[in-house]
Design goal:
This protein has about 210 residues and is mainly alpha-helical. It contains 7 helices and 6 strands. Strands 1-2 form a two-stranded antiparallel ribbon. The protein has a two-stranded antiparallel sheet with strand order 3-4. Strand 5 and strand 6 form a beta hairpin. Helix 1 packs across helix 2 and helix 5 crosses helix 7. The protein starts with 10 loop residues before the first helix and ends with a helix.
Length: about 210
């Protein structure tokens, strides 16, 4: 998971909110359909075409996910910063989160989850590290929020770990072929798991300096 810098909310969403909508389904119907499309496309652009939770490419099935689940707080339904483009997959990410989050995880006064990191609201840099087998871990073993975030989105689901491992192996292979770090970064730009790729490249360069 990496930080998302949100652009200004689409004008169509502003217009819809001025009518004080109460039902999310209304964004999918009639003249409001363009609002959903505008929001999804802007989310995708802000996220570089990657899922906001898993960092896999938004290919196939994807949608706008409400980071704060609508059933936990209806007030967050049309909040732009609560909208994240995410893949549809029962095994991990948004769909897994929605099945496992509970009312006890949420603080309605703060409008935040108590122990779950947001890619929009929280600083994520250096909160996670990666093993050579593709697993993601808290950088600090005492970081409860990082650990809970990994669990809630099931970021160590086996297929994700396998794909993350492949991405990190690609970095090592390029480095062993004596490619400069700038070339490696450029070659893998836009690929899945940019945070893991950057971590692996940084680790290799640090090890090279030690040697």
């Amino acid at each position: 998971m990496k930080n998302i810098v949100k652009s200004d909310e689409p004008e169509s969403l502003k217009r819809l909110k001025s009518c004080k909508p109460t039902n999310w389904e209304s964004i999918h119907t009639g003249e409001n359909k363009e609002t959903y499309d505008d929001c999804l496309l802007q989310c995708m652009e802000d996220q570089g075409g990657l899922c906001g939770y898993t960092e896999v490419k938004l290919n196939g099935k994807y949608h706008i996910d409400h980071f704060i689940k609508r059933s936990l707080d209806a007030r967050m339904t049309f909040e732009w910063e609560n909208m994240i483009a995410a893949v549809h997959d029962d095994r991990f990410g948004a769909d897994y989160k929605d099945r496992h989050i509970s009312v006890d995880d949420y603080d309605p006064n703060a409008r935040r989850y108590r122990e779950v990191l947001s890619p929009v609201w929280d600083e994520l840099a250096h909160r996670f590290v990666f093993s050579t087998d593709g697993r993601i871990k808290p950088a600090d073993e005492t970081d409860v929020k990082a650990r809970r975030t990994i669990e809630l989105f099931n970021l160590n689901e086996q297929s994700l770990c396998n794909r993350r491992k492949q991405a990190m192996n690609a970095v090592r292979a390029m480095r062993q072929a004596n490619l400069p770090s700038e070339c490696i970064a450029q070659s893998l730009a836009g690929e899945d798991f940019p945070t893991a790729i950057a971590y692996e490249l940084r680790t290799i360069l640090e090890n090279d300096r030690v040697i």
